[in-house]
Write the structure tokens for this entry.
Amino acid sequence: MTVHVAVLMGGWSAERDVSLVSGRAVANALKSRDYQVTEIDVGRDLAAELRAVAPDVVFNALHGQGGEDGCVQGLLEVMRLPYTHSGVMASALAMDKPRTKKMLAAYGIPVAADKVVSSEALFSGDPLPRPYVIKPYNEGSSVGVCIVTDDTILRPDMDGPWQSCEELMVEAYLPGRELTCTVMGGKALAITELKPKAGFYDYNAKYQDGRTEHVLPAKLNSEMTEKIMGYAKLAHDVLGCKGVSRADFRLDDSEAGDHVPYILEVNTQPGMTPLSLAPEQAAYKGLSFADLVVWMVEDASCQR
């Protein structure tokens, strides 16, 4: 019997365009393995669309608010449809960066100092010593991230996350190497170092070809490799993630650095684009893109 998979993509978040790329890649992979596939560009009528197509399982390729924060997961739970990735609680927690950090710190995972401030209060004085990073507290893919240095003059009329977000997370800037580790089926796969060719690893560096060098595996000693992979798995477990997740880290292992891998965030629905890191790490471990997608569908069917 042919398994019918509905692939959710698009949606209304700031990461809509990336989600469409992920969703189409997933749909094509499933079609190549003879699954029946219905592609859904998600709108507010999602429940009606799902009732109409009646899939056996849902592949959630949405990113950002609405699709990654527990909302769609709750709908799928009510409809009793098995779906990929994490459940309601883990999704909601991981999208709330301050709460995620508090939970992970309680389990001994190093995190940077941070403070949640209103966008209005941001301009009355520095909430943390400079340099620091300003982030929407509930977006992914480095959407809206802004680094404030000693030379930055902050103004409300500048482009920044304060233009669209009422609350922001301000986090101490951590110098050093950008590292990421995928966890699949409860096991850490590998660590990639990300080397942007200009600036920092922002939204454009993530999704524009040629903007960032991926070093896989990252050049780390065995002790640091084990530590970071252990933290990634622990974060996956602490938050209650399922399927595939990805944890991002910052490590200053320079001569003057503290040699501590600080976790930045946990992504419960890593991208599935041609430049995405989870599929790249899976391929490094011998799993093709189509194999990875099929595993995620089968895992979803078994989990719920």
User: Anything to note?
Assistant: Confidence is low (pLDDT under 50) at residues 201-208. Residues 222-239 form the longest helix (18 residues). The chain has nine helices and twelve strands.
